[in-house]
């Protein structure tokens, strides 16, 4: 069991990472990564939604009529997203404001439906739950990495605390959307060069196929 | 043709019922808190247009400042607000503005000096403009332009004009012409009504 969990996490975090391997969830990865705090909250929200959606889909998988399973998945996912949205509005209004429409857009995040359809539909509940956490964590890992560089170079701070001192000239470029594209591109490049793929093959030099 | 079964429909109905119940109860638990947060953000806006915003974001501090400085009054059925200074004298009138912007209704408030010749500040309470483009009307760099600009209360229309017009008071947002024009239109329309009707009634009080 331990080995299995470890395997699920290696896949979700690195070898089959939803963002830089499956290229899913790019929209929000670009949008909320100008500050570490926003990325962290978005990541936690996604881990919550992915894991619970996968769990629920997996529990219901034997009773769900096959041809309406997508509809069922969407319903389950949106319910959890609304819960996240309400909780943020009630207890973290500032964060809710900062994330704006992106919390609602978690519904359309392909990672969640991808995991429900590919994994939870064919695996037992506990495995699916862990797989959801792993995929959500993989997404958070990428977001935090991108946000780390964007906030550091764009604002000279980390989690809002100034680290580069007064003389640092902010790279405005990093705060703006193009900065996210460049960071994501570089990250995918690095990942393709150094992190082995799912099949255990060494990554092809120069970014693979 | 495939045989029709009710099972999928029943399944969907039951599942929807379960989730609606869960969401409704969570909503019921948090609704008071959310309303409180919205109230707080509204009070913050009122203090912002009066330029009385404290450094703290504490709810109790903002609430007591609001109680001290803002008073709701009814002028011929129009609800407007008075801004009071520390001595309790009226130093501003706060007028709600509302109208259709690019994607939906825009609501805001404008603070005017008692002689109606100066705009003291503007804030937008709610709107649904494009984030990053029209949504930038929420940014301080746009709103701060409205501090202490002169308007002509007798103008009738075109109270607010954008630069580069020689008489322009503020800059529009580049890349968000639609929203900028909507803000100008809503501002001018609401001011026209206020100056011609509510102002007279206020003077006769």
TrEMBL record, chain A:
Entry-linked InterPro entries: NqrDE/RnfAE
Keywords: Membrane, Translocase, Transmembrane, Transmembrane helix, Transport
Lipid bilayer topology: Multi-pass membrane protein
Membrane-crossing segments per the record: 43-60, 72-92, 98-116, 169-191
Keyword Membrane: yes
N-terminal signal peptide: none
Location of the protein in the cell: Endomembrane system
Stored NCBIfam families: PRK09292.1, PRK12405.1
Protein's UniProt name: Na+-transporting NADH:ubiquinone oxidoreductase subunit D
Organism: Anoxynatronum buryatiense
Automatic annotation (TrEMBL), chain B:
GO MF term set: FMN binding; oxidoreductase activity, acting on NAD(P)H, quinone or similar compound as acceptor
UniProt entry keywords in alphabetical sequence: Cell inner membrane, Cell membrane, Flavoprotein, FMN, Ion transport, Membrane, NAD, Phosphoprotein, Sodium, Sodium transport, Translocase, Transmembrane, Transmembrane helix, Transport, Ubiquinone
Gene Ontology biological process terms in this record: sodium ion transport
Gene Ontology cellular-component terms listed: membrane
Residue span, FMN-binding domain: 101-194
Keyword NAD: yes
KW Nucleotide-binding (keyword) present: no
UniProt-listed InterPro entries: FMN-bd, NqrC
Listed name of the protein: Na+-transporting NADH:ubiquinone oxidoreductase subunit C
Natural source organism: Anoxynatronum buryatiense
């Amino acid at each position: 069991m331990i080995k299995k969990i470890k395997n699920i996490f290696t896949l979700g975090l690195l070898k089959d990472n939803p963002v830089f391997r499956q290229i899913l969830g790019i929209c929000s990865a670009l949008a909320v990564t100008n500050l570490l705090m926003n990325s962290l909250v978005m990541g936690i929200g996604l881990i919550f939604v992915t894991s619970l959606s996968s769990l629920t889909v997996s529990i219901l998988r034997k009773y769900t009529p096959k041809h309406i399973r997508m509809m069922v998945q969407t319903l389950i996912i949106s319910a959890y997203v609304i819960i996240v949205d309400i909780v943020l509005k009630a207890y973290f209004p500032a964060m809710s404001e900062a994330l704006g429409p992106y919390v609602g857009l978690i519904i359309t995040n392909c990672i969640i439906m991808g995991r429900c359809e590919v994994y939870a539909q064919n695996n037992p509940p506990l495995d699916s739950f862990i797989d959801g956490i792993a995929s959500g964590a993989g997404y958070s890992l990428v977001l935090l990495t991108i946000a780390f560089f964007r906030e550091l170079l764009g604002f000279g701070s980390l989690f809002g605390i100034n680290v580069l001192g007064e003389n640092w000239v902010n790279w405005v470029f990093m705060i703006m959307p193009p900065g996210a594209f460049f960071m994501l591109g570089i990250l995918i490049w690095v990942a393709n060069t150094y992190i082995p793929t799912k099949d255990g093959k060494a990554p092809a030099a120069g970014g693979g196929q | 043709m495939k045989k029709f079964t009710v099972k999928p429909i029943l399944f969907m109905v039951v599942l929807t019922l379960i989730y609606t119940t869960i969401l409704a109860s969570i909503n019921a638990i948090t609704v008071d808190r959310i309303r409180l947060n919205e109230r707080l953000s509204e009070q913050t806006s009122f203090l912002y247009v009066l330029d009385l915003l404290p450094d703290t974001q504490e709810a109790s501090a903002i609430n007591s400042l609001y109680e001290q400085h803002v008073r709701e009054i009814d002028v011929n059925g129009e609800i407007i607000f008075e801004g009071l200074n520390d001595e309790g004298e009226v130093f501003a009138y706060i007028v709600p503005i509302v109208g259709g912007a690019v994607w939906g209704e825009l609501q805001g408030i404008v603070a005017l000096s008692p002689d109606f010749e100066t705009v003291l500040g503007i804030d937008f309470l709610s709107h649904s403009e494009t984030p990053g483009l029209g949504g930038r009307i929420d940014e301080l760099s746009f709103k701060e332009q409205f501090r202490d600009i002169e308007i002509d209360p007798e103008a009738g229309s075109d109270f607010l004009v954008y630069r580069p017009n020689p008489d322009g008071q503020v800059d529009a947002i580049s890349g968000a012409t639609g929203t900028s024009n909507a803000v100008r239109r809503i501002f001018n329309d609401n001011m026209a009504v206020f100056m011609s009707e509510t102002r007279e009634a206020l003077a006769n009080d």
